[in-house]
Predict the structure of YALI0E08096p.
Amino acid sequence: MKVSTVLVTFLSASSASAKTYRRQDSLNNKPYWAALGCDHLIGGHYKFNFPKFDSSTVKSRKQILEEYCKVMPFIQSKLLCYQGAIEPEHYHTQVRKQIIQGCPNYLTLEMTDEWLANATKIAVEPEDPTEILYLPVPFDREHWEEEYEEVKPHYVALDYASYYGVALLAYWALVFVIGTIINFSQHALFSVYKKVGFNKFRKYVSLPALFGYKHSQPMGWDPLKMASPTRIQSLVVLGYLIMAFVLCFPSYPFDDDYEEAGPWGAQLEAFVADRTGIMSFTQAPIVFLFAGRNNLLMWLTGWSFDTFNVYHRWTSRVMMIYAIIHSCIWTWMCRHSLARDAAELYWVLGTVATIAGSLMLLQAMHVFRSRWYEIFLVLHIVFGILFVVGLWYHCWTIGWMQWVWATIAVWGFDRIIRVCRIAYCGGIVTGDFTLVDREQLIVKAEIPCSRLWSIYPGAHVYIYFLSGNKFWESHPFTIYQSPEACKNGNMTLLLKAKDGITFDIVTRLVSAGGARPMKMLIEGPYGAKHPVGKYDSSIYIAGGIGITATYSYAQKVVANSVSKSIIFTWVVRGDSCLEWFGDELEYLLADPRVRVNLYITKIDKKEGLAEELAEEACELESKSPEKLSITSSNRDNLNIQHFRPHMAELLPEYLKESPGSTAIVVCGPPAMNDDVRQALCANIESKSERVDYFEESFSW
């Protein structure tokens, strides 16, 4: 191996021990480039009395570094070059980072100052640079400038990688600025906002799902099912993907005159490997930001957690594609010394980060998330920790730690605020849980609410049930206030048992006779509040226990709004809802502006439809007075039907009956949400006034 190659590789590159060396990665770092020019000059133009190594005596790069640190004329020559090439205020910084950090067990700053003073007295210009030198050489500015100009382009290329990574972040910043302006206009400038139609744009771009129908429902087939974003979300993601691809290629400073850089193919390998690695680092903070609950951008834009989940998935995919490309190319470039290189700690931990991130992508596929969400979440956190730890040690060696710090800060901030929110909600509280529908396994809970905050429409909390065997798990629940809860200041929630923690709750309630108190931690509140009360009319469509979200909005509008028309529709499986949600419906029906449409869908398909409807009607009439108190006065604003409505037929009628600007609030099963969205897209131009769609949902 050539002396120049040995010195440049082992004393200047980023492959030293993670405990002793960090690449200087600040932008436009001319003192660092000057130091590298010296490293190349001294290592490439002169020969010193270096020890000889072969495969039987060398075990690591660190061992080679320690031996080279002991060659005093070599170190003294570098010090003389640093003194001549670097501005005085940066000299000690570069000596410390470029020389001492490579020789931590041998050199100190005081020792280098002594060696420099001695070198100025004994330095001699060699008559024949090809011979082995035993004395330091003085600074040769002419040859140093040549080396500097050859070294500089490569590090300028690294700077471009940082610039382009920041450009991707700037793209997202622009998206969020636009979202913030729209959200601000919707709340603070509503009188102007509602006059802006853009119905064509909203019909074909901002409202529909990517392929026209499925948005809340996953599209595709197992195991390749995936959530389908809306078209506007897809356009945002597409712009990001185009930028992420295009920015991999410009501004590469190919150099035919730089011998050590190799041919263009080898240079391209190095350029792409470095750029994809650095750009991967730059995306890590937003990947973690978009996944967090305490994301300030959700408050600024008013966008849902689901929207940021879409962006989280795509930014994480781009980040990991960059990382995989970076890892593969570097593995190829180091193929001749892979056994030695791959044993370095920074390489091992970089590999750990790449593998952990790749596993996160695989186990985050819809087929795993939807079927084993709790297992998915635990594994996601474990792999996330491995990813950050691996990234930390990798960047501690090669540089760009600022992106790791930012990632840790974002993740740490989210976790700290979660703890603060638990304290904000009163710490450990006890709620009263009641199994109100044994057939549908519906549970209703009244929970003390902190006096530090007020319940608002669309709010949800995460609950940690301390009485179970998985107290560390948190589960989201939409909250509202029943008429009784409004009196005593409690919060109310409904849950339907499926599996996991909700089924465990029902099991414990059944064993306790149907009701029991439970201790818990509450984390919240979360969720954006939409300005539904500012519209002239509002339409609420709920399915099942999605009633909690739509009721909270309707309740607020009834209490505080001057809306002209309020249409409240609930599609529910059985009429037992009249018993456990009767007080809430009574509250709405007391307002003459409200029209409640109740669709009961439980029909035995083995019998004829007419017979079933007759049987349902008989059962309805035979119910207890308590259960059917809301129907006893023949209310004109209550309509009970026994079939599943078609939203494509229902929504156009609602829009005709709603004067002025109209808000549509939807919360129900994925298929129902998609039906309403599609129906609105088909009929949004039927009204000249503005119609806005607000969906409260959680998608896998």
Observations:
- The radius of gyration is 33 Å.
- Residues 1-22, 604-628 have pLDDT under 50 and may be disordered.
- The CA atoms of residues 464 and 473 lie 6 Å apart.
- The chain has 26 helices and 16 strands.
